[in-house]
Write a structure and sequence with these properties.
The chain has 332 residues and is mainly β. It is built from five helices and 24 strands. The protein folds into four domains: 115 residues, no CATH class; 78 residues, no CATH class; 64 residues, Alpha-Beta Complex (Type Iii Antifreeze Protein Isoform Hplc 12), CATH 3.90.1210.10; 59 residues, SH3 type barrels. This is Flagella basal body P-ring formation protein FlgA.
């Protein structure tokens, strides 16, 4: 990223104000050396950041740590101290903290031609971003953690942020299913302040123990328990189409050949036809406290639960009935 030239101006405002009270005497000061290249870690620049520590006594350096110069530059940017004004500024700071018998004019102040302040940055480790992504998926996915596998985690760009203590805030789209391609928003905070936002994508696979055919089941056959087996499978593509309960397939008809080792899918089965046109059935009319029956004949094919036309053989009237079994229909 190209550096942007910004000047630290905070100390200019301080010329017209009282810089400090002489609450206590500091050690004798003979020399102050200013560094030409400075890298800060926080959000602000203090006088101590640009002073070479070895050039001043410890108590003076601690004093300089409390004197604010301005905001630190953003990652990839730099700021410049106005060296032409810095010497006078330093003498005012020093004078305000010396005994009245001492003179700041006797202090040797060494200032380079240029003072450049930059922000210490780091590239967020890939493992750290991956962990934030995985932790969020595991905490918010409707699937059991042992049934999912997260892979192909990726994001664009180089995640450069200021140095400091990093925490993360992760969020997902409202309708996220946490299955297949999953993209999350990962906000990185440094020392509690927002530093970078990343869109992180990954692929979430779902595995379940689902029902498979243990032998070939020809098209049109009715499934029974002897033809079923269990096997763990990747059901990421359409988990609702796979079967985990035998009761959902036993007695159903397959719509195409199912070979040994293949999963039995909901989309490939249906209820078998239990009554066909012309079959004799018992018509049942049931209301609270009343049950009437009559003989009838089905006018069309039907499955359990279907509504079909039935002729009452006594009255010869055609009525609508719901199929209860291969022998019984219920008057609607």
């Amino acid at each position: 990223m190209k550096a942007r030239k910004t000047v630290l101006l905070a100390f200019l405002v301080m010329f017209s104000s009282t810089l400090a009270d002489r609450l206590w005497a500091l050690s004798p000061l003979h020399r102050v050396e200013i560094a030409s290249r400075v890298e800060v870690t926080g959000d602000a620049v203090y006088l101590s950041d640009i002073v070479v520590p070895e050039s001043v006594p410890e108590d003076w350096f601690r004093k300089f740590q409390s004197i604010y110069l301005g905001e630190a530059p953003q990652p990839g940017e730099v700021k410049y101290v106005q060296v032409a004004l810095l010497a006078d500024y330093l003498r005012k700071v020093i004078s305000s903290n010396m005994m009245s018998s001492e003179s700041a004019e006797d202090i040797v102040i060494s200032i380079p031609d240029e003072v450049v302040v930059s922000r210490k940055t780091i590239v967020i480790p890939k493992e750290e971003i991956e962990k934030a992504y995985v932790d969020y998926v595991l905490a918010h996915s409707p699937w059991d953690a042992e049934d999912i596998k997260i892979e192909q985690i990726r994001y664009a760009g180089l995640p450069v942020v200021p140095a400091g203590t990093r925490t993360y805030e992760v969020s997902a789209d409202r309708n996220e299913r946490f299955l297949g391609n999953v993209t999350l928003t990962v906000r990185c905070l440094v020392n509690g302040r927002h530093a970078r936002t990343l869109r992180v994508a990954g692929f979430v696979r779902l595995f379940k123990e689902v029902i498979h055919a243990s032998e070939i089941i020809p098209k049109g056959s009715i499934i029974d328990a002897s033809k079923l087996s269990w096997k763990r499978a990747d059901i990421t593509e359409s988990p609702e189409d796979y079967v985990t309960e035998p009761s959902r397939v036993i007695g159903k008809r397959v719509l195409q050949d199912v070979y040994p080792g293949e999963p039995i899918k909901i989309s490939e089965i249906d209820d078998p036809i239990v009554v066909r046109r012309g079959d004799p059935v018992k018509i049942v009319f049931q209301r609270p406290g009343l049950i009437l029956t009559a003989k009838g004949q089905v006018k069309e094919d039907g499955r359990v639960g279907d509504v079909v036309k039935v002729i009452n053989l006594s009255s010869r009237k055609v009525i609508q009935c719901r199929v209860a079994s291969k022998d019984v229909v219920m008057v609607e």
